[in-house]
Amino acid sequence: MTAQTTPPFKRGDTFALSGVYRINGVASQLTNQTIRSQLRTSVGGLVANLSAAIDPDQTLNPGRFYLSLVDPAQSATFPAPANLYCDVEVHGGGTVRSTETFIVPVVPDVSQ
Fold first, then answer.
1. Is the pLDDT of residue 1 over 70?
2. Contact status, residue 70 vs residue 15, Cβ threshold 8 Å
3. pLDDT at 56 > cutoff 70
4. Count of C-beta atoms within a 10 Å radius of residue 40
5. Where does residue 86 rank: exposed (0-12), middle (13-18), buried (19+ CB within 10 A)?
6. Rounded CA gap, 16 and 90, in Å?
7. Nearest to 43 by CA among 2, 73, 84, 76
8. In sequence order, what are the beta bridge partners of 52?
9. Within 13 A of 58's CA, how many CA atoms are on the CB side?
């Protein structure tokens, strides 16, 4: 299976993504669960810890979560051009599950 790729991210911009956690293709509520996420290089080097928030209305938005940088200024230090790798780890009910890995292509910014 080919990893999903986000649209290119320009180094130095505000990093913010949202997604829906699915099990077997079906959106799964994240009520009473916690999530965490990181950006890493292709060889596993940590680039950034992400702030991972669950949408508070899991009835209307089942599985919806939001990712952003803990330190927004950190995006200015991202390697570019480069592909960064990310997944979301879901903890709850005594289990840990991870989403599929997805790729975040980083490109240099032009206007500095």
1. no
2. no
3. yes
4. 15
5. buried
6. 19
7. 84
8. 67
9. 13
**Strand-pair category, 16-20 with 4-5:** unpaired
- Rounded distance, CA 71 to CA 61, Å? 26
pLDDT of residue 111: 87
pLDDT value at residue 3: 81
Domains parsed from the chain with CATH numbers: 4-107 (2.60.40.10)
pTM: 0.91
- Judged by DSSP in three states, 106 sits in strand
Q: How far is residue 71's CA from residue 90's CA, in Å, rounded to a whole number?
A: 22
Which residues are within 8 A (CB) of 47 and not within 5 positions of it... i.e. 6 or more apart? 38, 39, 40, 41, 78, 79, 84
Which residues does 23 contact at the CB level (< 8 Å), separation at least 6? 97
* CA separation for the pair 93, 48 (Å, rounded): 27
The token pair that represents 53 in the structure block: 């928030």
Q: Which tens digits make up the pLDDT trace of 63-87? A: 999 999 999 999 999 999 999 999 9
